[in-house]
Specification:
Layout: H1 2-24, E1 25-26, E2 39-42, E3 46-48, E4 52-54, E5 61-65, E6 73-80, E7 90-98, E8 101-107, E9 122-127, H2 132-138, E10 144-145, E11 157-164, E12 167-172, E13 180-183, E14 192-197, E15 203-212
Antiparallel strand pairs: 1-15, 2-5, 3-4, 4-15, 5-14, 6-11, 6-15, 7-8, 7-14, 8-9, 9-10, 11-12, 12-13
């Protein structure tokens, strides 16, 4: 009887833990990216909804989830850019307050295989004040790094972004070691979350999964 109770308790505990993890994980419905009640789009057009494909044009572009308030946790996503310098800034924005106030982790695929510029492959920014240019000028090499392993510049790669305010760690293609570890500059500890593309950049995204801590 005692053994049976222990077994039942262990099973109940396992089920509870499993259900808790499941409740904390969210896989947004990317088939609804054209629904303004579900997603908000800023300064971009959606070219394809089989995957999320945002067009390239001047200024930052954002596509964020309306009903998600993200604090800490893990963001998993597949990303694809192009191998054209200055036209492929692709990533994830989080702790979004509005279309000009957010933190982001983004990649420059055109730098992935460049011996001279691969140190500018992944970067943290905190808009509106802490742009890539401001951070590079004032804190060189602190908020950007090479990526390891190195993906093909025009291929899909997997990004895992772990936010544990103020620490943010970025992993590429499920590597054990992070490609970038920084501390957030902003004092925002929560906000909306979505896809980000930079000036004149288009980008592709798929398989977004958000696991709250």
């Amino acid at each position: 009887m005692k053994k049976l109770l222990v077994t039942m308790f262990a099973g109940l505990l396992l089920a509870t833990c499993f259900n808790t993890v499941c409740a904390q994980s969210k896989v947004p419905d990317l088939s609804k990216i054209n629904d303004p009640e579900v997603w908000s789009l800023h300064n971009r057009e959606i070219l394809d909804d089989d995957v999320v494909h945002l067009n390239g044009q001047p200024g930052d572009g954002l596509l964020w989830i309306n009903d998600l308030n993200f604090k800490n946790g893990t963001i998993d996503v597949d990303i694809k850019g192009i191998d054209e310098r200055g036209r492929s800034f692709v990533g994830i924005a989080f702790h979004i307050l509005n279309d000009s106030t957010f933190d982001a982790i983004y990649f420059r695929p055109f730098n992935f295989m460049s011996p001279e510029r691969n140190g500018h492959s992944v970067q943290y920014i905190s808009h509106p004040r802490n742009t890539w240019y401001y951070l590079r000028e004032n804190f060189p090499e602190k908020y950007e790094n090479p990526v390891n392993p190195v993906p093909e510049p025009t291929g899909w790669f997997h990004a895992t972004i772990v936010v544990d305010y103020p620490k943010v760690s970025v992993y590429v293609d499920k590597a054990e070691e992070p490609s970038l570890v920084i501390e957030q500059i902003s004092d925002r500890k929560e906000g909306q979350l979505g896809f980000w593309v930079g000036n004149n950049s288009e980008g592709w995204f798929r398989n977004l999964k958000i696991t709250a801590k």
